[in-house]
Amino acid sequence: MRPAPPPPITTLSSLEHSAEPMVVLRRPILPLLLAATTVLGGCAYNADLGRDQLLIVKDENLAADGEKAWADTLRTTYTSKEPRRNARVRAVGQRVITAAGLGDRPWDYAVFLDESPNAFVLPGGHVGVTVGLLDMVDNDDQLAAVIGHEAGHVVAHHAAERASQETTSKILLGIAGAAAGGSDFGKLLKDHGDQAAKYGVLLPFSRKQELEADRLGVDFMQRAGYRPREAVQLWRKMQALDAGQGHASGGELSSTHPSDALRISELERYLASRGW
């Protein structure tokens, strides 16, 4: 539901500059333009999402980081050894994972001793669920909604897309900064360019990913034999929990996740369109 931050980005290597007498661009700009050409060639169509994705970073590039993060989490965080909790997560998880078309790889599940209702997925096939989430859900359908959402991130290649998006923004900011040089605009880009990219591109894009994962998650729930409408009930419970803790449900400008109200309305709209 609130996935761990993406692994460190692998930046594109610098490209050699081949001097030509007729080139009038300043020296730092041409390598960045060549890198941008590489970026533009990284688009791929994702049939599950029905849109193109920029994927200059691949899932396999993130797998090693995911394995390390999973090992580190297991080493530094207490996990539940209660057989019933672990069996429940594994049983529901495998049904959803198979329905998502991801059953051809081994998956690891762990229940973490954290009272906050949360779950996450890591590249490489690892799902973590907290005891707080297990205590909050009313039934296996709602648990399936959570795991389905996480499986949706995997099918959508969201981790790789997020990493590609951040890498691209750095390249484009480098091009703009080099072109602006020492002008006032150049100084503005240097001082605030990262923040502009964060609030103008990266955070809204992450909210879009979350809504996509919600939609894919209910698709997987339905295929696995669970009740898709329980996903709405789950988010209503989350909304009530946030309100009870005094957390505002709005204020999306600086949030990487949609508001609970928006998620509920978008899910209801999607469920109605599917006749569920």
Backbone structural class: mainly alpha
Please give the largest β-sheet.
3 strands, mixed
Instruction: Give the helix proportion (percent range).
Output: 55-70%
Task: Round the Cα radius of gyration to an integer and report it.
Answer: 21 Å
User: Low-confidence spans: pLDDT under 50, at least 5 residues?
Assistant: 3-41, 185-190, 192-205, 250-254
Q: How many separate helices?
A: 9
Instruction: Tell me the domain tally.
Output: 1
What percent strand? 5-15%
Question: What average pLDDT do the residues reach?
Answer: 74
What characteristic shape results from the CA principal axes?
A: globular
Q: What is the end-to-end distance?
A: 22 Å
Please count the beta strands (DSSP E, at least 2 residues each): 5
Strands across the major sheet, in which order? Answer: 3-5-4
The ordered string of helix (H) and strand (E) elements is HEEHHEEEHHHHHH
If you had to describe this structure to a student in words, what would you say it looks like?
By secondary structure, the protein is mostly helical. It has one domain (32-274). Helix content is 59%, strand content 8%. It has 9 helices and 5 strands, in the order αββααβββαααααα. The chain has helices spanning 29-40, 59-76, 83-99, 131-136, 140-155, 158-180, 184-223, 230-244, 260-274, and strands at 43-46, 51-54, 108-112, 119-122, 126-130. Strands 3-5-4 form a 3-stranded mixed beta sheet. Strands 1-2 form a two-stranded antiparallel sheet. Helix 6 runs antiparallel to helix 7 (184-223), helix 7 (184-223) crosses helix 9 and helix 8 runs antiparallel to helix 9. The longest helix has 40 residues, at 184-223. The chain is globular, with a radius of gyration of 21 Å. The two termini are 22 Å apart. The model is unreliable at 3-41, 185-190, 192-205 and 250-254 (pLDDT under 50). Its cofactor is Zn(2+). Belongs to the peptidase M48 family. One of its GO terms (molecular function) is metal ion binding.
